[in-house]
Amino acid sequence: MLVSTAAFNLFRFDSVGNKTYLQPLFRVPGLTRRVELAGGVWAAPNGGVIPFWPLLVLLLAAALVSGLRRREGQGVPRWPAIVLVGMVAVLTAQFASWYSPFGWIAWGPRLFLPWLPVLLVLATVLYPRPAQTLASWVGGTSTRKIGAGLALALAALPHLAALRPPDPLERLFALDASCPVPAVLQKVSTGYFYRCLDHTAWAKTPVWVDSLRTLDAGRGVWLALAVVAACLAALLTAPLGVERQLAKASR
Fold first, then answer.
1. For the chain, what are the domain ranges?
2. What pLDDT digit, counting tens, does each position of 40-89 carry?
3. CA-CA distances (angstroms) from residue 144 to 15, 59, 212?
4. Within 13 Å of residue 168, how many CA atoms lie on the same side as its CB?
5. pLDDT, tens digit, for every residue of 130-165?
6. Which whole-number Å values give the CA distances from 181 to 26, 119, 177, 243, in the listed order?
7. Is 98 strand, coil or helix?
């Protein structure tokens, strides 16, 4: 991938690097601002990973913590977890150093999104105990399965609601009193640009909440009910807790 990217850049820019993206204008100035944006990459209501993918973050964090606490000589060693944590830290620092850390204009943390499933799969395959424990606990009773299904539906609804008109991103990126002029980095001051970035990321109505307005009537209600039904069916029929049941049966 690196070779193909370098070859493309060489063809387009006569350089192995992307001359456009490497311009100093597109790099975030100041360590303090980068630290603030690093927090936004994870927690900002309109672009952070946690508000948009809470269940994924929970499973990823549990798997990595389990890996970091692993004692030497017990199964998979600790160093893969350290590598994965390092990857998360490097990615966070790189996105926080870029003038558009969320990958806007888009739904949620677009730049981080391609990495999240990969990190989750690696972490849970290497350190499956937290995911297995959670699955066994949820699968212990029908009540827990129903609760988990409702939680899953609640987390999924905004993502599907955003596909229905009107587009919530139009309201998110609309001009307002705090940012009356389009925040185009090449045309405004650096201070104004990053002030508008913070305002959009933190102060405006969370876009995933705003998107739920499309589910208040008509087909939106049926879409919500279909999502809830699908999540409940998936959890109620999934073989969660099978290992625990087999262990009890063998005693």
1. 24-250
2. 999 999 999 999 999 999 999 999 999 999 877 677 899 999 999 999 99
3. 56, 17, 25
4. 24
5. 999 999 999 999 999 999 999 999 999 999 899 888
6. 19, 38, 9, 59
7. strand
